[in-house]
Write a structure and sequence with these properties.
four-stranded antiparallel β-sheet; 25% helix; elongated
Amino acid sequence: MKKILILLLCLLLTASITGCGTQSIKPIDTIEGNMKTYSEMSDGTWQCDGHIYKYRLEISGRLSNAVKDSTYIYLSNIEDITFEQAWKASGLSSNMDDYFDIDEAVLVELPD
């Protein structure tokens, strides 16, 4: 009886140790953006050029004197990016302070 109890305890301990292994995070979808290629990961994050981002933001608005709205798609660790921040950081600003650090956000698509 004691041997069976020890055997069951060993099996339970082995199962709990192997069951706690880390799962690998894998890409579930890869998107060919017109600016950069990026992937949606199995844990819900986004990856681009080796950087991990929490959010994929579609930011729309209208530039002054524009006929139609523009949309910018960013991968970001910032939860909220305004349209003004998005268009300035897309390459339209001459002020380097308007651009995001690569760990904060990256522009991946400029849809038509």
